[in-house]
Amino acid sequence: MILRVLTLLMLFATPLWAACEVPGSLGALRTELLVLTNAERAGQGLPALRMDARLTEAAQTQACRMADRGRLSHRGSWFAGLGRRLRREDYPYATAVENTGMGHRDAPQIIRGWMDSPEHRVNMLNPAVRDAGYGVARAGDGQLHWSMVAAAQQ
After folding, report:
1. What is the DSSP letter of 142?
2. Quick one: which of 31, 73, 79, 107 has the fewest CB in 10 Å?
3. How many CB atoms lie within 10 A of CB 153?
4. Does Signal count among this protein's keywords (predicted)?
């Protein structure tokens, strides 16, 4: 019984995306994504976003799930949406948005793709959000899957 409990604790202590293939430069990519996002926001007179570890976990989980499935989605396992992922990460949000993408080679290309898409642009330039997190995962075919979560706490 004790061994079973310890095994379960170890499973749930590990991030959901731990088995996911991520680029070796994941930390640098996340920083670059934040810098590029904030440059777009500054160009519109909006405040800079801050990197938040909980949003990063939610974004990385989604990027890995998309890479695993080989398709874009805003739903995770059991059809869990962004709200459930943020609650799982203990982020009490008042507002939250998510951008996803796949196939873009690098950070400037995905940011340009999001800014060129009217729906994604609205999320990037949402004046109500204050924090952000980014996820990047590599699918079996080598394509990168990207996720951005931006939100503001209650």
Report:
1. S
2. 79
3. 13
4. yes
